[in-house]
Amino acid sequence: MMLFSAQRTEKLAFAALWASAAIVVLPVLGIIAVMLYRGASGLSWGLLFGAREGLLPAIVGTVLLVSLTALIAAPLGVAAAVYLNEYARAGPLVRLIRLAIVNLAGVPSVVYGLFGLALFVTLFHFGRSLLAGSCTLALLVLPLIISTSEEALRQVPQGLRHASLGLGASQWQTVRRVVLPNALPGIITGLILSISRAAGETAPILFTAAFYSLTSPLPKSVFDPILVLPYQLFVMATEVPNVPESTKWATALVLVVVVLGINLFAIVLRARLRGSRRW
Questions:
Q1: Rounded CA separation 89/249 (Å)
Q2: In the predicted model, is pLDDT for residue 276 greater than 80?
Q3: What DSSP string describes 222-265?
Q4: What is the pTM of this model?
Q5: For residue 251, which of 26, 31, 30, 53 has the smallest C-alpha distance?
Q6: What percent of the chain has pLDDT over 90?
Q7: Crossing angle of helices 56-82/180-200, nearest 10°?
Q8: What residue segments make up the domains of the chain, in order of their start?
Q9: What does the pLDDT look like over 264-275, one tens digit per residue?
Q10: Which residues are paired to 156 by β-bridges?
Q11: At the top level of CATH, which class does the domain 55-276 belong to?
Q12: Could you give the CA distance from residue 67 to residue 249 in angstroms, rounded to a whole number?
C-alpha cells in the first residue's frame, strides 16, 4: 500500500513538473508561431540585404553591440565573483555588496540608459556610439553575471581547493587552474542569460548608441553610432508610418533568430567545456 502511494505521488509530481514546463514553453512557441505566420511573407533578400530598408547594418550592429558588451562585462563580472567567493572575508561589507548587486539587478533598464547618457555620452565624451552603448549594457548585465558566476564558483567542491593547496599551490594558482576551469560551464550559462537580455534591450541604447535610418553604412569604429534590431523594430512600430505589418513581424523574427544564434554559439561552447572538464 505504501509502495502504491509512493508511486502515485511520484507520478503526480512528474505530471506537475510537465505541466509547469508546458506553461512556460507553450506561450514561447505560440509567440514564435505568430511571428512566423505574420512575418514569413515579409522576409526577403531585399529586406535582409537590400541597399534600402535592408536589415544587414542592424544585424551587424546588434552582433557588435552584444559582443563588445560581453567583452567588457564578462571579465569584470567574473573578477568580482572570484573576489567575493574566494578572497573576501564574510562580514557586513560583503553582505552589503551582495545586497547591492541583488538590488541593481532589479533596476529598470531605462535608469541604466539615463546613467549611461550622463556618464559615457556626456562626461566621458564617447558620444552616441557603439562604445557608449556597450558600456551601458555592460553595467546592466553585470549584476546577473556576478550572481551566476559566484554561484558557479560555489558549486566547485571544496576538496579540489584543499587538494591543490595541499600540493603547494598558491591560492591564486588554485583559483586559476582548478576553480575557474571547473566553474566555467556555469559561468558561461550566466553569460548566455546576460547576452539574451542585452540583445533585446531598447531603452539603454535609445539614449547611448542607436539611431534609425533606412540606409546606413556599417560602423567604422567603436565611436560611431549604430543601427540595432530592437531599436529599428521600436521605431518601425511607433514612429514610421506606412510600414507593412509583415515587415515589422519579419524584423521581430530576424531579431529572435539573431539572439538564438548567439545563444546557440554560447551553448555549444559551454557543452564543449563541460565535456572537457570533469570533476
A1: 51
A2: no
A3: TTS-B--HHHHHHHHHHT-TT--HHHHHHHHHHHHHHHHHHHHH
A4: 0.85
A5: 53
A6: 22
A7: 140
A8: 55-276
A9: 887 887 777 666
A10: none
A11: mainly alpha
A12: 25
DSSP letter, residue 210: B
All three cell numbers of 177, joined, read 587552474
Question: Hey, what's the cell of 172?
Answer: 591564486
Query: Residue 123 corresponds to which cell in the numbers above?
Result: 562626461
Cell of 202: 531598447
**What are the start-end ranges of the H helices in the chain?**
2-39, 45-49, 56-82, 92-105, 109-116, 130-154, 158-166, 171-174, 180-200, 203-208, 229-238, 245-276
The burial class, CB within 10 Å (0-12 / 13-18 / 19+), for 255 is: buried
More confident residue, 229 or 1: 229
Percent of the chain beyond pLDDT 70? 93
Is 51:215 a contact under the CB 8 Å cutoff? yes
At position 57, the amino acid (one-letter code) is P
- In this structure, the number of other CB atoms found within 10 A of the CB of residue 19 comes to 10
Task: Tell me the backbone φ, ψ of residue 124, rounded to 5 degrees.
Answer: -85, -5
